[in-house]
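User: Okay, second chain of the day. Same drill as before: sequence in, C-alpha cells out.
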Amino acid sequence: MRLELGRRADYAVRATVDLARHQADESRRKARDIASEMDIPPSYVPQILADLVRADLVTSMAGPRGGHALARDPEQITLLEVLHAVDGATPSATCVLRSGPCRWNAVCAVHVPWARAQQALLDVLGRTTLHDVVVADRQLDVVAFTLPDDVAAPARSSRVGT
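Assistant: Same drill. C-alpha cells below.
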C-alpha cells in the first residue's frame, strides 16, 4: 500500500518546516532561500507560499527586508492545516475499490474501515505541529551524526521531505 503526499503538499510541508526552523531568528525568509534549503524547485515556492498566505499560515512582506514567516508560533500550526491550505479540506469520496461490483452503488464493503483509517490519519496530522516535526528532524540529525559511517544514512541537505 502506498500512502504519500502529492507534490504541492510535499513542498508546502517542506516550506513551512523551513519557516518553523527559522522562526526563532525573527527574520523573514526569502523564497529562493527556502527553495535552496529544502530542495524545492524555485518556480514552485511562490505558488506554495501564496496558498499558505491565503490560509493565514504564513505572512509575506515585500522589499529588501521582506520575505516570509509563519503567521503563528510553530506549536500552533498543524500538519493538517498545511495540507488543507494546498490540497483542500475534503477527503476523497472515491471508492477505495474503484471498480468494485455493480451492486455496491453507494457504499462498498471496505467503506467503513477505510473511512475510519482516513479519520485516524487526519487525527494524527491534526495533532502534529510544525514544532513537533522540527524537533523530530533535529533528533534525526543527532542520531545520524552519532551512528557509525557504515550504518548512517547518506548525508542530505535537508532531511524533511527528501
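The chain is about 45% helix and 5% strand.

User: Thanks, on to the next one.
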